[in-house]
Every structure is written in C-alpha cells, then in structure tokens.
Amino acid sequence: MTVSVVPQPLVVPVEIPGGPTRPSVLVEVPLPLAVEKRRELDRRLRRDCFVGEDDRVTFDADDVDLLTLISRERFTGADGQILRQRAVRALGTIDQPAARARLVELALNVLDDDAVRLAALSGLPPLRVRRLLPRLLRDPSPAMRRFARSRAAPRAVLVADRVPPRCSSP
Hints:
- There is one protein chain.
- The protein contains eight helices and no strands.
- By secondary structure, the chain is an all-alpha fold.
C-alpha cells in the first residue's frame, strides 16, 4: 500500500502597508451626464404629467433617445410598467420621425403588452393609425383587433349633422 502525500501550500504572512485597517475616504464624484439625464427624465415621468394643464411636463427632441430606451426596458413590478407606459405616451407628444417609428414598432409588436401597444397607438397621428389598421385587424390579440374594428368601422352620421337646424321665426 502506497501513501501519497499532498504538499501543503506555503503560507507566508503578508504585511499590508499602512496596517491591516485604514479609514475610508468619502469622495464626491459627479455622476456621468448620461446618468444624470436619465434620473431627471425618470423624475419627470414619475410626476403625474398627463393630468392637469398646470402641472403638465413637456418632452422634446432631446428626450427621444432616453424615452426610446425606457420604452424598451421591461422591468418587473408596477413602477417599471408605469414608467414604460408614460415613456411611450411621452414619445407620442414629440413630433420626430424616431419617436413615431418607435411608436409604430411598439404598436405592431405582438409580443408586447396590450396596454403599451394601445398607448403607442394613442400617440400616433390618426392617418398613421389608419394605415396600421389592416395589420391590426389580423392581430392575435383580441384587444388590438377590437381597437382596429372600432377605428375601421364607418362612422355613423347623425341626422342632426345632415339636416340644417330650423330657424326660429321672431
């Protein structure tokens, strides 16, 4: 019977310059500009920005990239979903090709949540929505098909719209 001996590692004590413990130093470092812009945009989205004319938050072309990024994020939990829906609605307030393209992409994405898709459709101009109706009528989502049918149906003309009002005689 042979016994093998496993060599033990050599332990050498290490001297840490300055001693084993040192006080921490707190350094104030400004956040990168991109992080600061995202935090500021998140604050604006968290405000109840779509209710009340006085408190309305506006978005512009400078916000499109970050709003597009937020519209792509799929965080779990109510806060992430609310931010995402508000970002989608905010994209609808910006008259930029990139914003409209992202809204169309969201509206036609069958894997996305219906609430997000409907928010995207509400931000598009009516003519653009009308062009999407044939695809939405064949959508696998019942909610999206119902939306498309409601927009594709001919509008009823009220009799009051066709008959001029009678003039009252003095």
